[in-house]
Design goal:
The chain is α+β, with helices and mostly antiparallel strands and 164 residues long. The protein contains five helices and seven strands; from the N terminus they run E-E-E-E-H-H-H-E-H-E-H-E.
């Protein structure tokens, strides 16, 4: 029988509303769209959900605990840099990141053309092989705030293992 007691899973979720005059950045990719996402940082909802999943796996709180939106240092921050810091936090806590999977819910724009670039950016930020990072996109069939094109949500899960 295998000993799975070293394994930890984490789950993360994030939501951002659309706003005029902002860039739409998902997974570190600048996506052409009429609106961007509102947030203190660059509002990369996908990177934030993955960060929260990683922090959840090591019981490290959430992204707001490490990078509070009341701190001017994080105004317009690059969320891939924040994700990289979270990945280092996970490693410093004695864990290895094994796998990450995620889903973006957005009615528009169409995200499939950008999926590979998102995976590459996220993998690089976390120091993982691309094969260990999943990104999927879905619509909500015009239901909910995503379906009404008021914003975008993302969820993520991860698997980590205690190294010692």
């Amino acid at each position: 029988m295998e000993d799975f007691s070293r394994l930890r899973i984490g789950q993360g979720m994030d939501v951002h509303a659309f706003a005029e005059g902002r860039r739409l950045i998902l997974g570190g990719v600048d996506i052409p769209h009429t609106k961007g996402l509102l947030g203190h940082s660059d509002a990369d909802v996908l990177a934030h959900a993955i960060s929260d999943a990683l922090l959840g796996a090591v019981r490290g709180g959430d992204i707001g605990k490490l990078f509070p939106d009341t701190d001017p240092a994080y105004k317009d921050a690059d969320s891939l840099k924040l994700l990289s810091s979270v990945a280092q936090f996970v490693r410093d806590a004695g864990y290895e990141i094994l796998d990450v999977d995620s889903v973006i819910a957005a009615q528009a724009p169409k995200l499939s053309p950008y999926r590979d670039a998102m995976r590459e950016n996220l993998a690089r930020a976390m120091g993982l092989p691309v094969e260990s990072v999943g990104v999927k996109a879905t619509t909500t069939e015009h239901l909910g705030f995503e379906g009404r094109e008021e914003g975008i949500s993302a969820t993520a899960v991860c698997l980590c293992a205690r190294c010692c």
